[in-house]
Amino acid sequence: MLRLTPVCAKSFAAQALSVGIADSRGSIEREGLGDGSELPELTIEVPRQQLAPIAISDFCLDPTGSIETVAGPDNRPRPESLTIPAVVSAHVSLTCSNGEAVEVAYSSHPLDVVLICEAPGSGE
Length: 124
Fold this sequence. Notes:
single chain; 124 residues; mainly beta
């Protein structure tokens, strides 16, 4: 989850907020931004096909190729999740206007990906 607190310069009002992650986009226009006292929520779902391949060795697998979420063949616990830092970036732009001028602020934030090991038939 990425939480933003968009703020325009004094005497400027937010006109639009746009967020892009990989090839997925979302935006909120002025009406949805309100007066800024309560931030709106924007959800962007990024299909796995838009993520670059991630090289993972033996995560969630025992040597026979079956899913092993509790312990490996050597009886050591295997991780049930794995966080990979900065796999993708969220690109954010905030458009602000005061009626005479328009300003656009850009920002980029790295996002982690969390892989979760699930037993067959237990989820998606």
